[in-house]
Design brief:
Blueprint (H helix, E strand, L loop, with lengths): L4 H16 L2 E3 L5 H9 L5 H15 L9 E4 L3 H15 L9 E5 L26 H8 L3 E6 L15 E2 L3 E2 L15 H8 L5 E6 L5 H7 L2 E4 L19 E6 L2 H9 L35 E5 L7 H16 L3 E6 L3 H28 L9 H10 L11 H11 L7 H25 L3 E5 L26 H6 L3 E8 L5 E7 L5 H14 L16 E3 L1
Parallel strand pairs: 3-4, 3-7, 10-11, 10-12
Antiparallel strand pairs: 1-15, 2-4, 5-6, 7-9, 8-9, 8-13, 12-14, 13-14
Helix pairs in contact: 3-4, 6-7, 8-15, 10-12, 10-13, 11-12
């Protein structure tokens, strides 16, 4: 035998071993990466759940005190272990089998409290899971816990940015002096801080999109009717929808498809028949932007120069990827002038009626209508345990209580004429300019301070285009990171399309993300031991 032969054999074996080696990194891991590690025997759901729980212990209520998670599932490790055993004997139920997720604390969970961030519902455990919660459990996901929410999902109320009377204050992991935006700020901050792979929020006027933008992650406000709202504490069922919040477009595509389906408890879901998919990953196309006509919305600009700079850079990136950018796309003045009054009229009447219906389905001991909520809210003036007063939300309860009834002509007109008017105007933009989707900076400003600055004596006019346009129309709006300001704060762009255009929006966002990976890990929550390994 040649004296070189053993050396050559050893070298060949070493090269073969190196070729087979893979690296797992919890910060960058996707659903696909995790399943590859599961399949190789290098990772289990139990171990993965432990890694996320360690991060929550280190960074949620300690260290930077992000405080995105307000309730951790005490049975999470036991559930993960059982799902590992099931994987061995029966195989995985879905790509989410054994993967931890967090739910905004207005998603009903039969084994954990659902408080909508309010002391009024402290300890309230629903009789059953909501539709999306059950879908996720059936898919084999581990529900790791519940995330903080602006109280009763109203994110634009005064007071603190990211605060609730039961959940306290959530901080933005990119800058601890800033808030996470609302109302799904706990999910936004939690996913950015890597407390779970996937989160869920709800959106009535921008409550998924604002937190995705402020925290620099991916998310979607889907077509209203694609996901059931049954089992989500309502704010305004005229506008409400749930939706996933993730760190990558591919993870969003996986998750969204597993949650679709017609639900008899939400009649609006019948509109998805023949238009929904159970697998949106088939639309992940790196070349999707080639030839795509995107209408550029500039009616949100003028409020922050750094946001505008990032948006202009994103437009150049879209053009480089082959998109055809169409300028001059604007909402008509009559929509801009009427929009906010219509939204307020509908939301106030809806909440008063919708919350009464939800409260009627709870266990004994909780308020039964908005008037009881106001009485208890006004009486709660000093902190007690983990609960603290939130008078700005009580003030908003009173405004909602004074709103129209669902039978009043004011409400009927807003609902039957005002909403269709705005929807028709938006449809007209797509048709007039022959565009496949609209593109705009999701938020006109990056993350804002926890305690808002006093408004100027002469406040600037609100942007002519805002996220609630999608809620008026019921159309989908998909958010993806686009870059950072000079202060290292995330800026995102939104792909907004017609009803049930999720396949196109996912394709466009994925193509943009793959060519321009702008998401960054927040500096306040670095990797912990065990989160990076080779196998």
């Amino acid at each position: 035998m040649s004296p070189m032969r053993p050396i050559l054999i050893a070298l060949a074996l070493a090269l073969a071993s190196a070729a087979r080696a893979a690296t797992f990194n919890l910060e960058t891991a996707t659903v696909t990466d995790i399943n590859a590690a599961f399949d190789a025997g290098a990772l289990t759901s139990e171990k993965l759940t432990q890694l996320y729980l360690k991060r929550i212990a280190a960074y949620n209520d300690a260290g930077p005190v992000i405080h995105a998670i307000i309730y951790a599932n005490p049975n999470a490790l036991e559930e993960a272990k059982a799902l590992d055993a099931e994987r061995k004997t029966k195989g995985p139920r879905s790509p989410l089998h054994g993967i931890p997720i967090i739910l905004k604390d207005n998603y009903d969970t039969k084994d954990m409290p659902t408080t909508a961030g309010s002391f009024l519902l402290d300890g309230s455990i629903p009789y059953k899971d909501g539709f999306i919660t059950k879908k996720l459990r059936d898919a084999g996901a581990v529900i790791l816990g519940k995330s903080n929410t602006s109280e009763f999902a109203y994110g634009g109320v005064g007071g603190k940015n990211g605060f609730s009377s039961h959940g306290g204050q959530t901080r933005n992991p990119h800058n601890l002096e800033l808030g996470p935006s609302g109302s799904s700020g706990g999910s936004g901050a939690g996913i950015a801080a890597n407390f779970a792979l996937i989160g869920f929020g709800s959106d009535t006027g921008g409550s998924i999109r604002g937190p995705c933008s402020a925290n620099g992650i991916v998310g979607i406000k889907p077509t209203t009717g694609l996901l059931s709202r049954a089992g989500i504490v309502p704010l305004s069922l005229s506008f409400d929808t749930g939706g996933p919040m993730t760190r990558t477009v591919s993870d969003l595509a996986v998750t969204l498809g597993l949650c679709t389906g017609i639900d008899p408890n939400d009649p609006l879901t019948t509109t998805q028949a023949g238009l929904a998919y159970t697998d949106y990953t088939k639309f992940l196309n790196k070349n999707a932007l080639k030839g795509a006509r995107l209408g550029v919305i500039r009616q949100t600009t003028g409020m922050d120069p750094e946001t505008e700079r990032v948006f202009e850079a994103a437009l150049a990136e879209l053009k480089a990827a082959g998109a055809i950018l169409v300028e001059g796309v604007k909402l008509p003045d009559y929509v801009i002038k009427a929009r906010q009054d219509i939204w307020v009229t509908i939301e106030r009447a809806d909440f008063k009626a919708n919350i009464k219906t939800y409260l009627a389905g709870l266990r004994p001991g909780y308020p039964k209508d908005i008037y009881e909520m106001i009485k208890l809210g006004r009486a709660f003036t000093e902190p007690k345990g983990k609960n603290a007063p939130n008078m700005p939300r009580v003030d908003r309860f009173e405004e909602e209580a004074a709103g129209a009834e669902l039978t009043d002509q004011l409400y009927v007109s807003a609902k039957e004429y005002g909403m269709p008017m705005i929807k028709a105007a938006v449809v007209g933009l797509f048709e007039k300019h022959h565009v496949d989707a609209l593109i705009y900076p999701t938020s006109p400003k990056p993350a804002q301070p926890i305690v808002p600055a006093p408004p100027p004596a002469t406040p600037p006019p609100p942007p002519e285009w805002s996220t609630n346009i999608a809620n008026f129309t019921g159309f989908p709006d998909l958010i993806v990171p686009a870059g950072l300001t000079k202060d290292k704060l995330p800026v995102t762009i939104s792909f907004f399309g017609p009803a049930y255009s999720e396949p196109k929006l996912i394709a466009y966002a994925y193509a943009y993300e793959q060519a321009n990976p702008h998401r960054v890990a927040p500096p306040t929550v670095p990797a912990l031991a065990g989160e990076h390994f080779e196998y």
